[in-house]
Amino acid sequence: FIAGLQNLLGQADNNVRDLRTGTYQGSSYLAPGYLNQIKNVLLPTLTSIISVYLWQRRSFGGRLMACALALLAVVGLLGTGQRTFAVVFFASLVMSYALVQGRISPRRLLQFGIPFLILFTMATAALGRSESKVEGSEGAAETLSIYGTEVFQRFFNGQQLSAIYAEAVVADWQIPPMSDWLTGLAQLGPGRSYDQSIAGEVGRYYWGGDDGTMPPSMVTSARLNIGKGPTVAVFYFWGLGLAALSRWVLSQRGGSPLFFVGAGGLMFALGTWVSDAPFQIVQWGAGMFAILMLVGLRQYRRYVASVPAASADTGDGSLRAQSVSAKA
Questions:
Q1: 220 close to 172: Cβ distance less than 8 angstroms
Q2: CA 40, CA 42: separation in Å to the nearest integer?
Q3: 3-class DSSP state for residue 315?
């Protein structure tokens, strides 16, 4: 990401594409799953909470430190060139805000979303996405149109097109039971690249090389790994589990900032899993979000136990409890 920004500013001519793809495949694999939990969840969560606290103190030094921490979180999220994790964390913040407030208005969503879209588009340009198209563009308007199309496709139809193409490629494949999922599990540790999976293999068909991946849908992935019958059962109970988790989170009377960010991130990671192996949700930080949620809830309950019941109970039976949550 930083190398790409240097290119945009005309300060260098770095090969951003190779640096970016090297973070998730090839011999220079830099972002295994265990590292993603720290870089993409723990670091931005803690820096965000501390930044909000410092900003609310209304001192120049505190706000300067808050901006520095926010910049650190952005570099951590985008530094390896993988924009998905920035989307996941942004969504966790939006969902945590909605949990605290009980709802999120369209106006507030735009206030959150527009700066993020600008940052996301800048990252798209800095990371060399659609580089070949941009080189042949004429004028700034066409360049912005190319990047806008790239951002739109990434949010609205990238995974769907990938799933359709992957299904056509692997329709007749036969693999050893659970082999691809076990490969995905191994990729959470160091020394295993993403190009060793079905997504990497299909990506080579599509790109003609190691330029990217094309993950199958979660249903295709499950069918190849465990068969058709177990696939139906797995997703039936998966749906029940998501419903139970949602009811449990909404039933809590309050929580600390860690609880809300963790719950928002966990619900987003689990609820938006639509492609690739189930270990993809771990790559997105679901494990660390779950830990943050439970630690935050325990922190809140210990705080409530230490203060008089009358001052801790909001009496509305909802998640709001802002005064207690903020202090916790």
A1: no
A2: 6
A3: coil
- pTM of the predicted model, to two decimals? 0.77
The secondary structure of 10-68 as a DSSP string is TS----HHHHHHTTTSSTT----HHHHHIIIIIHHHHHHHHHHHHHHTT-HHHHHHHHH
Q: How far is CA 250 from CA 12, 60, 91, 101, 209, in A?
A: 50, 37, 17, 12, 46
Place of tokens 């359709």: 164
188 close to 282: Cβ distance less than 8 angstroms: yes
Taking each continuous run of H as one helix and of E as one strand, the counts in the chain are 19, 0
Q: How confident is the model at residue 238, as a pLDDT?
A: 93
* Closest C-alpha among 24, 320, 60 to residue 192: 24
State pLDDT tens for residues 197-243: 788 888 888 877 666 678 888 999 999 999 989 999 999 999 999 99
Nearby residues of 247 by Cβ (< 8 Å), 6 or more positions away: none
- What would the pLDDT profile of 176-204 be if each residue is shown by its tens digit? 888 888 887 777 766 555 556 788 888 88
